[in-house]
Amino acid sequence: MKSARILFNHETLHVTVNEKDQVVTQEGKVLEEGSFTWLPPCDGKIFVLAINYADHAAELSFKAPDEPLVFLKNNNSLIGHNQHTYRPDNVDYMHYECELVVVIGKQAKNVSVDDAMDYVGGYTVGNDYAIRDYLENYYRPNLRVKSRDTCTPIGPYLVDAKDVKDPHNLVLRTYINGELKQEGNTKDLVFNIPQLIAYLSDIMTLSPGDMIFTGTPEGLADVKSGDVITTEVEGVGILKNTIISETEYLKTINKQ
Amino acid sequence: MFYYRQKESDTAIEKTAQASVEIPLDDTVLPPTSGSVIGVALNDKALVKTLETSFHEKPHVQPPKTPVLYIKTDNTHIGYGAPIKVPTDKGPIYAGPSLGIVIGKQATRVSVENALDVIQGFTVVNEVSLAETSFYRPAVKAKCRDTFCPIGPWVIDKESVQNPNSLTIRTVINDQQVHETNTNQLIYSIEEVVSYISGFMTLEAGDIIIAGTPLRSAELEIKPGDNVMIDIQGVGRLSNPVEME
Predict the structure, then answer these.
(1) Which residues of B touch A140 (CB under 8 A)?
(2) Which CATH number covers residue B218?
(3) Fewest 10 Å CB contacts: which of A102, B9, B86, B244?
């Protein structure tokens, strides 16, 4: 099953998504695309893996780490499918990162690698934007690079764990305006899903809705205002997002 | 005015009190808000002084240009009186006395001049941490263990705090004062911190900013069996026992 959250007539609705990718309300009504706003399908802690694909590590001239390199994002950065992400004025390099997101299904503490997959509730697609101009060597990647308003599109929906046969063999692709820019496969994860859950749950208690962005493969590119960015994970979803300028963004927040 | 939250048959109830003595300090007291908790690291003058040389060496290469931020995840938040659970195999554990800045309304891109307008009030935070040997990578392992962020017991409204940038913070372990600092030791002021963060992260009502913690000197080390109390002049007194994880 696929589940999502949408904003419809100023109300947050928990809905399902059918085989034709149509949104169906709890009353069984099919809603037309455009009549509602997609919201992030989950709510919880946001863990993101840095350099968790060997090819991407090489691209950044890093050696793959000895233990998972995890950073956190705050929920201010989350937006849903088909929304806008703003590019600050006067920056040189802002890039997408297409990622498989593992969503925790039940409380997890000190979970073994062998049992870890039982704690996965589902999967979704995440785009972990970064603005490299702001990188500093303190708690790197620092929050100013990563945890920015609008910089973490996620969705469109959550796919139940049981409906994804092998999460360790899924193709990831990113397109800018329809042109393929990034391609990889989750079989190349340095730390796989059970290892990540075991690692994190050894440090702390994970709760339902917590998200683990598992990292991105090579193929990063700069994005500009007006670009439509499509990130997709095979069998999990296609997440679209449009880049706007900071000026356009400021108009939208000042209207509120 | 004091704002606090209390557990009543497994539901968190938001409450207010005119005087702090009206607030029952028992095991029903919860952290006073349920928002995000964001901390400012390396925001203490004496602490930064001890690190100055290393800031110019690899991997840092140069001192931080902007406030250094971290996140205390929800699993770390506990209220007044709840036990801080510490592991015994991860080296020393330190208390982290700090003023907590509590946001009162949604805030995006607030100027330093207008920062106080979006602040509801202040609370006491004990930002517990393992020793940090490096500031290069995010401090998830050191700072995000369960129970590592006592907050409370209440939020006092900003009108009752004359100058948040000049408040004495005392740490008392087992009835002995072990440490004293003051918010005038912060590098970035309360207003500067709120303005900076809101420049790219929209803050929501109930979000808390940990203004800055001092150098984790041996006096701040906490061990199972201890009781650690942080007292901020005119804000409140946060007390928690320490237990083995």
Answers:
(1) 136-138
(2) 3.90.850.10
(3) B9
For residue B140, give the nearest of A70, A140, A149 by CB distance: A70
Using a CB-CB distance cutoff of 8 angstroms, which residues of chain A are in contact with residue B138? 70-72, 139-141
A113 contacts A194 by C-beta, under 8 angstroms: yes
Based on the fold, state whether residues A163 and A191 are members of the same structural domain.
Answer: yes
Digit-coded pLDDT (tens) for B80-106? 999 999 999 999 999 999 999 999 999
Q: Which of A229, A228, A201, A233 is nearest to A216 (CA)?
A: A233
* Within-domain flag for B2: no
Give the domain extent around A5: 1-39
pLDDT tens for A73-83 read: 999 999 999 99
Task: Say whether pTM exceeds 0.95.
Answer: yes
Beta strands A2-8 and B84-86: pairing type? unpaired
Split into its structural domains, chain B has a count of 1
Structural contact between residues B149 and A151, judged by C-beta atoms closer than 8 angstroms: no
Identify whether residues A120 and A230 lie together within a single domain.
yes
B68-72 and A130-131 strand pairing? unpaired
Say how many domains are in chain A: 2
B201–A204: do the CB atoms touch at under 8 Å?
no
Choosing among B47, B73, B78, B93, which should be mutated to test the A contact, i.e. which has the most A CBs within 10 A? B73
Instruction: Identify the residue among B200, B202, B208, B210 best suited for mutation to test binding to A, counting A beta carbons within 10 A and taking the highest.
Output: B200
Give the confidence band of A66 by pLDDT, cuts at 50, 70, 90: confident
The partner residue sitting opposite B201, judged by closest CB among A71, A74, A109, is A74
